[in-house]
Amino acid sequence: MTAPNNDDGLWVRRFHPAPAGRPRLVCLPHAGGSASFYFPVSRALSPAVEVLSIQYPGRQDRRHEPCVDNIPELARQVLAELGPWRDQPLALFGHSMGASLGFEIARLIEAEQGSCAHLFASGRRAPSMPRHETVHLLDDEGLLADVRKLSGTNPAVLGDPEMLRAALPAIRNDYRAAETYAYVPGPALRCPVTAFTGDSDPKTTVDEARAWGTHTTGSFDLQVLPGGHFFLAQHQAAILRAISAALTPTTVG
Q1: Average pLDDT, the chain
Q2: What is the CATH number of domain 12-251?
Q3: Contact predicate 194/106, CB 8 Å
Q4: I want to staple 209 with a disulfide (CB 3.0 to 4.6 A). Which of 67, 98, 149, 197 is the partner?
């Protein structure tokens, strides 16, 4: 199977094409996030790792499409769109809601007897560690208060009423998807798993992040970094080093 040579698809954005045979990392945005969030990651890892960033329906250039508010269903749709890219094992990186989505995609790949290169789960408790959360049921101001508290949305969006109105449906949809996600017990993953968490993340405790290790028979690594829910913004270099070491071990000094 030959991978596409452009990024013209609605779902998959390839900002920096890499030479054939390089590891591929699929990046899955957080609630309310978009593919462009991972442009700096793609730029930093290129050309050693080829980044495929996923654009969910209902945002930016897909804003007129209906959102998907069910993590398992979104996983099925994303995996279907990744079909042309599966000529080699894919690694998956997801932050927050994207981590739950990455887990479900990895399960689907392995259920097909496929191979997942690595799952990087960032800023999200393990699937088997549920919480009862209902932020998605709050009014607009209540929802936005939580978004502001987590500091994950571009301040320009929060300060622009028109942009905010355009973004709110996707944000609420993704909160609903993340908060209603229910882990269904099944076989553990076979691929390596690395979990990243902030030591003061209100959405994930260190113990909840450590529980990712129970979801794989492969190797597991937990990296705790200073910061809250969007700790990755302050520690991008450390996270990229960990990804590079896992995916390109022979090129890391």
Answers
A1: 90
A2: 3.40.50.1820
A3: no
A4: 197
Rounded to 5°, the CA angle 240-242-243 comes to 65
The amino acid present at 214, given as its one-letter code, is T
Give CA–CA dist 235/225, Å, rounded. Answer: 8
| Domain spans in the chain, listed from the N-terminal domain onward | 12-251
- For the record, the structure tokens of 12 come out as 């998959």
Contact 114, 42 (CB under 8 A): no
Tokens encoding 88: 């080699």
The torsion of the CA quartet 69, 207, 105, 55, rounded to 10 degrees, works out to: 50
β-pair type (50-54, 220-225):
unpaired
pLDDT value at residue 164: 73
pLDDT tier for residue 249 given thresholds of 50, 70 and 90: confident
pLDDT of 150 reads 78
Give catalytic residues, as residue numbers.
96, 229
Residue 82: phi and psi, rounded to 5, are: -85, -5
Distances (CA, A) of 84 to 89, 100, 155, 210, 225: 12, 23, 36, 33, 35
